[in-house]
Amino acid sequence: MTGIGVQEAARRHRRGQAGLGVRTAGKFVEVGGEKLYLRGVTYGTFASDERGDEFHDPGPVADDFAAMAEAGINAVRTYTVPPTWLLDLAEDSDLRLLVGVPWEQHVTFLDDRGRARSIEARVREGVARCAGHPAVLGYAVGNEIPAPIVRWHGRRRVEKFVERLYEAAKDEDPAALVTYVNYPSTEYLQLPFLDLVAFNVYLESPRRFAAYLARLQTIAGDRPLVLAELGLDSRRHGLGAQASALDWQIRTAFAGGCAGAFVFAWTDDWSRGGLDVDDWDFGLTDRVRAPKPALAAVADAYAEVPFAADESCPRFTVAICSHNGAATLRACLERTLELEYPDFEVIVVDDGSADETPAIATSLGVRVVSTPNRGLSAARNTALELATGEIVVYLDDDAWPDRHWLAYLAQAFRTTTHAVIGGPNVPPPPRNLAERAVAAAPGGPIHVLLSDEIAEHVPGCNLAVRRDALRELGGFDPQFPAAGDDVDIC
Q: What sign does the dihedral 417-388-486-410 (CA atoms) show?
């Protein structure tokens, strides 16, 4: 090849491909329309050279990125703004970077207007340096503002300042995802504008870790949840304990519906405030980049995201009851038939439709049962009678499922004794005022939670129930022809 190198040619090809922008889609992240589970690791901070540059030698960085890619890692979190050459190296290894923009958050930064303006200016400058690069996943415009600082300034002032930094980052790179990395001590901060909900979580009990993930999902609501740091110190706990902990932490995070996780850290070699940190060993590799057992454990766990392939797979019956639903049924069925799950059937109960509902369902090859118009409860009972799955999952004809919907439901049924499981139900972006009002109205699972995991009822548009339990109850009450049957059965 003449003129440009092979790597540069490949890079230009990737940048020329359409649809590679990162965006959120419900509870997950997508690139080019495909779900991207963030299998991440943190990188740095490292000792600076005489010019103050943390990243100053491309050779070791290229080696690190190649080793990350080989281990199945696809995302890297930095705590400082990287140079362009590092972004290029990340792109060459198919890594996406969550770029941290550092500032002095451990002091009372809002007491000085000049300092606040300076922080905003640095965020703008840092984002502008990376804006538009295809290796950029997004930006973190803050990390763990200490709880005493939040109390000093007051929650609302801090929230408004984080929003100010969010807007500044969006001004410089509108298409990128922007987040703030929170931690348990300030989980009460209300930051609904963030694209991703990101938390650093260090819990060494599997039970407490899983319970706190459920709490964070409640906080996240309709947005993706990312664990921006998790890990264990091998110096204090031992190499084996570190590997074991990272294995269950990663698996629990993805089983709990997280869009991604970043293991802290890639290497034991790191520095803070110009000083080497030599009394903590959180790395997947040691200070000379020799792999620790944790690296293999993380690679194995990431290879099986979101669930291990050998998990048992209960059979599902997906029941879609429709009355004159032709306008939305095709999209619902097409997405349902794309579900990544090995054992399920689809039954459409046509409840006396006068439109093309039965023809649409028949054309897509699913089982169709037509009845006189008897109402929603009767239609759901018809599906129950015909179901061959041990779990019947009801889906409305104007909704569509995530590709891994049944896999998450199966995991929940495997690990609990609940009779009914459902949610979350994420409204699509509203196109007008009426849709905006409906999206904001109560009715989703979070509005009726009794705890972080138990709801008083599960909405029928996404309701999975053990078939035998529902039959034992006699099915849905036919006196509810249009709504309320889901509340009643629960």
A: positive
Query: Token digits for 13?
Result: 């090809």
pLDDT in tens, 57-112: 999 999 999 999 999 999 999 999 999 999 999 999 999 999 999 999 999 999 99
Cis peptide leading into residue 306 (ω within 30°): yes
pLDDT tens-digit profile of 290-336? 999 999 999 999 999 998 877 789 999 999 999 999 999 999 999 99
DSSP, collapsed to helix, strand or coil, labels residue 377 as helix
Q: At what angle do helices 84-92 and 58-70 cross, to 10 degrees?
A: 30
- The CA distance from 159 to 187, in Å, is 12
Same fold? 6-303, 316-489: no
Residue 136 to residues 43, 71, 90, Cα–Cα distance (Å): 14, 20, 9
- Architecture of the domain defined by 6-303: Alpha-Beta Barrel (3.20)
Question: What is the sign, positive or negative, of the torsion defined by CA atoms of 304, 307, 312, 317?
Answer: negative
> Which are the contacts of 413, defined by CB distance < 8 A and separation ≥ 6?
314, 391, 421, 464, 466
Q: Kindly give the residue spans of alpha helices, DSSP state H, lying in 98-198.
A: 113-130, 147-153, 155-172
State the DSSP code for 63.
Answer: H
Amino acid at residue number 307:
F
Query: Could you identify the residue written with the tokens 């095709």?
Result: 330
Cis peptide before 90 (omega within 30 of 0): no
Structure tokens at 278: 């030599």
Of 460, 59, 67, 478, the C-alpha closest to 283 is 67
- Letter for the amino acid at 80? T
Structure confidence by residue, pLDDT tens digits, 221-233 = 889 999 999 999 9
How far apart are alpha carbons 401 and 416 in whole angstroms? Answer: 22
Domain regions of the chain by residue span? 6-303, 316-489
Distance CA(427)–CA(440), nearest Å, equals 9
Residues 316-489, CATH architecture: Alpha-Beta Complex (3.90)
DSSP 111: G
pLDDT in tens, 157-210: 999 999 999 999 999 999 999 999 999 999 999 999 999 999 999 999 999 999
- Specify the 3-state DSSP secondary structure of 77: strand
> 199: which DSSP letter?
E
Relative to beta strand 391-395, strand 316-322 is parallel
- Return the structure tokens found at 488: 């009643």
Establish how many alpha carbons lie within 13 A of residue 310's alpha carbon, considering only the half-sphere containing its beta carbon: 0
What separation in angstroms does the CA of 487 have from each of 309, 446, 460?
Answer: 35, 14, 8
User: CA–CA distance from 34 to each of 23, 25, 138, 399 (Å)?
Assistant: 10, 10, 17, 19
Residue 153, strand partner residues:
none
